[in-house]
């Protein structure tokens, strides 16, 4: 009988190529842009003084001898930026620290690997928050009952679905229940599967806990991170809140100062394909309202970019 891989199996070695190949997308492009102009702050709040109104009464043209314009003043206000805190924990055993002490036993050091991985995970979540609506909501539920599969609204976008990953823990509930940090149909349940079929409108997540009833008034948020009111907000103030053209942002009401409103080309809420003319109009609006643009960057989702 000829020797083959079966007869010599006990004598054959297994060959491992060096290093670990990363299969997860670790990019945080938007966060990287924000960090380029960030400031290190301490204390309870960060305060920024802003110029919000001109001297509208003290300027005017007059003929010789006429009464001069009434003296007035510039108007300033203070932006009050709350500080938000982001945490991460990892757990390793003493045995794995010893077993992965050097390259003889492992391609990585356990503590270093977990620390670096946790940092990447936290940065990915902060990047999501920067795009978000500030209340922790990732997606809105559709009506579901008696199942571990939670259906999401048909309008849920591919960008939203990419925020869900197997192994992630989520809360499901109304905004009030997310504010409380507990309660609701589901609290701190693990995602076991993600259906990203946005083309068919059947997108959903499967969780480890069976739910009784989830309504279209319920939302999905990262476990423990949801909160919509000033006293319960846990996540960063996202760009979708910042670019709003109504309401109060960082203590300043846009109805009080017109300059605090964003330039919004909403088309009365009806979507339309992006065109060069629309982008030109948006840039012109920003230039007229806020001054020259030194560094023009457009940020959007892949779905919008492909239109």
Outline the structure in words.
With 307 residues, the protein is of the alpha+beta class. It is 23% helix and 21% strand. The radius of gyration is 27 Å and the shape is elongated. It has eight helices and ten strands. The strands form three sheets. It has a six-stranded antiparallel sheet with strand order 3-8-5-6-7-4. A hairpin with an 8-residue loop joins strand 6 (186-195) and strand 7 (204-214).
Write a brief caption for the model.
The protein is built from eight helices and ten strands. It is an alpha+beta fold and 307 residues long.
Secondary structure layout plus pairing:
Elements lengths: L28 H8 L8 E9 L21 E8 L11 H6 L10 H22 L5 E4 L3 E8 L6 H4 L7 E5 L1 H6 L5 E10 L8 E11 L4 E4 L16 H4 L5 E2 L2 E2 L22 H15 L11 H5 L1
Antiparallel strand pairs: 1-2, 3-8, 4-7, 5-6, 5-8, 6-7, 9-10
Percent helix: 10-25%
Overall number of strands? 10
Structural class: alpha+beta
Low-pLDDT ranges: none
Keywords:
307 residues; alpha+beta; six-stranded antiparallel β-sheet; two-stranded antiparallel sheet; 8 helices; elongated
């Amino acid at each position: 009988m000829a020797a083959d891989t079966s007869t010599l199996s006990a004598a054959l070695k297994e060959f491992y190529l060096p290093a670990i190949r990363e299969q997860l997308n670790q990019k945080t492009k938007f966060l990287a842009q924000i960090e380029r102009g960030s400031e290190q702050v301490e204390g309870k709040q960060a305060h920024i003084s802003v110029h919000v109104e001109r001297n509208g009464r003290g300027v005017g043209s007059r003929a010789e001898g006429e009464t001069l314009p009434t003296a007035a003043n510039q108007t300033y206000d203070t932006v009050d930026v709350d500080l938000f805190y982001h945490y991460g924990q990892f757990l390793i055993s003493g045995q794995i620290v010893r077993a992965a002490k050097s390259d003889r036993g492992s391609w990585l050091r356990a503590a270093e690997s977990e620390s670096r991985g946790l940092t990447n995970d936290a940065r990915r979540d902060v990047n999501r928050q920067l795009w978000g609506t500030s209340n922790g909501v990732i997606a809105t539920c559709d009506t579901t009952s008696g199942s571990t599969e939670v259906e999401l609204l048909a309008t849920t976008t591919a960008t939203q679905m990419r925020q869900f990953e197997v192994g992630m823990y989520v809360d499901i509930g109304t905004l009030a229940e997310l504010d409380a940090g507990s309660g609701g149909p589901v609290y701190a349940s693990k995602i076991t599967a993600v259906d990203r079929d946005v083309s068919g409108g059947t997108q959903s997540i499967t969780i480890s806990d069976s739910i009784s009833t989830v309504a279209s008034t319920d939302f999905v948020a990262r476990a423990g991170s949801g909160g919509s009111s000033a006293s319960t907000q846990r996540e960063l103030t996202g760009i979708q809140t910042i670019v709003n053209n109504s309401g109060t942002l960082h203590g300043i009401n846009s109805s009080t100062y017109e300059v605090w409103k964003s330039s919004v080309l909403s088309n009365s809420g009806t979507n339309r394909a992006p065109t060069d003319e629309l982008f030109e109009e948006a840039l012109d609006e920003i230039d007229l309202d806020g001054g020259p643009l030194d560094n023009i960057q457009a940020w959007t989702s892949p779905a919008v970019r492909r239109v």
